[in-house]
Amino acid sequence: xxxxxRDLIKFxxxxxxxxxxxSVLRAQTTDARTVRMVKNGDLSVFDPTLTTxxxxxxxxxxxxxxxxxxxxxxxxxxxxxxxxxVSDDKMTYTFELRDGLGWHDGTPVTAADCxxxxxxxxxxxxxxxxxxxxxxxxxxxxxxxxxxxLKEPLGLLINILADIATPCMFMMREKDAxxxxxxxxxxxxxxxxxxxxxxxxxxxxxFTYDRNxxxxxxxxxxxxxxxxxxxxVDRVIWNNIADQQTxxxxxxxxxIDYLQSPPMDLLSEIESDPNLQLTILDxxxxxxxxxxxxxxxxxxxxxxxxxxxxxIDQEAFLRVVSPDPKYSRTVTSIFGNETPVSNDENTGxxxxxxxxxxxxxxxxxxxYAGEKVxxxxxxxxxxxxxxxxxxxxxxxxxxxNAELAPSDWGGIVARRANKGPIEGGGWSIFVTDEADYSLxxxxxxxxxxxxxxxxxxxxxxxxxxxxxxxKWADVETLDERKALARGMQxxxxxxxxDVRLGQQASPILHxxxxxxxxxxxxxxxxxxxxxxx
Length: 533
What we know:
alpha+beta; 6-stranded mixed beta sheet
């Protein structure tokens, strides 16, 4: 007899589901001072400046701290900064650190640490590169004070410093921040509300974070990522459970408190369980994105990229990640659905069900001759896994020699940096996502760069788009930004910088005993959580 997933849930967890829980979890005792979580994928990159991966940003938010932070209305507020000011000519910003900031190794946080951290972060982020292009100098005045002296005005400076588009600007010790931004910092020593427990680290299995007893939170109430970062538990353990069903069984059994991606086909069963709760932490959700390698065949040809734009049936892709349509919708704007600059410019390509015949025609015009197209498949992130499999099948139906390259997400994070041909370990396509919120600011999100091999993975290049994007920092009104956005979108969909697969605002699953979860795009902070006994 075959037992379906739904049957398994209906018949309870006493036998079958309990057996599916890893023995290491069954052996653990639960208590109100420890929270156990399962995130999307296995944490393999620990340096939050090195990658745009959200799981690494979550790690960064626990271990490190930021100069400024966004509140629940996405307004920048001081975090590590105690006082700051700007000169009358708006060219010199002065920042003074607040009292009581210390690194986990017992040394004080200094202005020199912050200067080095800003410079390192600026090497790899669009917003940081803009700051450096307009900066004459970043330097310390004394142990607690530093300045940013501009050579051109930049009214959005504080907004950029506080932005949550990954990589976020976390402060590191000077000796760590002096490493090149392409070399990973592995010390995991920050000044944040949690300490990374190196002794209990079990790569591939779990990582442990302990409350930083010496952390002094701000006095303001918690508000988004701003305000006081109050830690109400002693320990947080991230368990790596790749299989969604196993992770879900662990939540049902009370061995896991929080699951970032519950099985979407079991939401009705979850809702009927009196001990479980579904919560949408990011109301706008994320947009799934198909990134193509613009440097290698076949997608170095604009016609091949345009073929992908016509091929995609967004509703079909959304069904494999979100069977309940109330959690998803199609998206045709490169600026997302919910941002102030979302628009419908140059979206005539969008067609319900896609247009496979048009895609085949464009591939033929591109001169596609059966070259292998490698789709990177993240097997431990169910949404990416399902999308990749559907994508490969969809490509094969129009005659593309598509091949899946399965690995965990950590393997994809490493491989997608390879700019070479497939024969040299390169790739053709990978699937990822970006917070809909972040897509509203082309100065900070890596997804809206078109500066070639200096940009983000896929390396799209278009000078006209970059010229328009460069104007964003200097326009002052929303109407001006809307006009720029329409021009940028017109160009983007002509040269096809990437392809959107739809938008999803998916809930996280947690036991009702766990409360105080902070809802904000990109980052899932661990402070403010409480767990009832």
